[in-house]
Amino acid sequence: MRNCFVFIIASLVLSTLLCKPVLAEDNASWLDGFQLGGYSSAGITLQRDQEAEAAINEVSLLLTWANDSRFSFFGEFELERPLAWNDDERFSRKEGHFDLERFYFDYNLSEKLNFRAGRFLTPNSRWNLLHAPPLVWTTSRPLATTQLFPTATNGVMLHGAIPLEKGAFEYKLFGELLEDSEQDDEELQFENVRGLRLSLKNQSDIGISILSFREQGLNATSYRMLGLDIVTTIKNVEVSAEAFQRFKNNNRDGGSGAYLQTAVPLNSLGLADWYWISRLETFQRPNDRSSERWLVGATWRVKPTQLLKLEFTGGSESLPESPRGFSASFALFF
After folding, report:
1. Each residue of 245-284: b (16+ CB within 10 Å) or e?
2. What is the torsional sign of CA 303, 305, 306, 307?
3. Nearest to 301 by CA among 332, 274, 261
């Protein structure tokens, strides 16, 4: 469980100060602006090197607030793996824990400038920003998007979009103000996070990010990281890719990772709303051997808010974060 209550309280105080004058002028109840939704996924995994497993992967609630003022709020509260089953332990709830994924307030300063304070997803990876199972094609997540950088940041951000003739130019400048006081045992720990993301959105979506941070541990090391990402469509085929390179302060290699993924519609075969998914990825942590992964599978868009995913994953050595074998999952928004 990530405990960020001090930062949340500070954000609440800030939000109250910002929105108080607006609320005084508006007779409508502030409760009218709240909306509640969420998403969930469940699946089975037949691992090549371990026992079969089935689990409810997560249940996430999304809470938003907005009205005609300059102020808005977003929160994501997640219960991870509330129920799991495998051949050894049968049904188990021991892995279940609460996660505060996002909790932030936005204040619109102008048409092209917004201020954000709270806990937000670190915006240096397109996959990290999407991350919700109903929004991504595969059950498994590329290793490079989980093992090289902090996936969330407690801090502040200036962000906005500048309209162009065909598309928009977006920017995000952010920095950490508060570390997580509690973290999962398996979770990598980072501090002093600062970064910038620039992206160009038109027929393609192209992004570049620069990040600096310190990875905690026995050999706490500071890193700088460059990230590139793109998603585009070529003859109805969605092509997406990301690449990351970390550097230590002495400019030596600090780890790297990349993936290339395609989603091919199968309508021509009479399979409406089915997509053939393939992915190649590589990943290397400092002082470790390079790990490779390949993935092939099919995803059925049952409804705009529901996905059924079937996939086979293979590659080099067994990794707990990316098991080899067959997996199937169902994800939905509610």
Report:
1. bbbeeeeeebbbbbbbbbbbbeeeeeeeebbbbbbbbbbb
2. positive
3. 274
171 closest CA partner among 106, 114, 227: 114
Q: What is the pLDDT of residue 18?
A: 47
**Residues making up the chain, counted from first to last:** 334
Query: Integer distance in angstroms from the first to the last C-alpha of the chain?
Result: 24
Is the Cβ–Cβ distance between 261 and 240 less than 8 Å?
yes
Distance CA 120, CA 76 (A): 10
What confidence category does residue 250 fall into, taking pLDDT thresholds of 50, 70 and 90? Answer: confident
Place of tokens 């037949």: 46
- The amino acid occupying position 215 is E
pLDDT digits (tens, 9 = 90+) for 65-84: 998 889 999 999 999 999 99
Taking the mean position of all CA atoms in its chain, how far away is CA 255?
20
The whole-angstrom separation of Cα 11 and Cα 117 is: 6
Phi then psi for residue 11, to 5 deg, are: -65, -40
Q: List the beta bridge partners of residue 174.
A: 157, 195
Average of per-residue pLDDT across 13-21 = 47
Spell out the domain ranges in the chain. 5-333
What is the CATH class of 5-333? mainly beta
Say whether pLDDT at 48 is over 80: yes
The tens digit of pLDDT for each residue in 89-133 reads 666 666 678 999 999 999 999 989 999 999 999 999 999 999 999
Tell me if residue 70 falls in helix, strand or coil. coil
Which tokens hold the place of 201?
A: 């959105």
Contacts of 13 (CB under 8 A, 6+ apart): none
pLDDT of 89: 66
C-alpha to C-alpha distance for 243 and 144, rounded to whole angstroms: 8
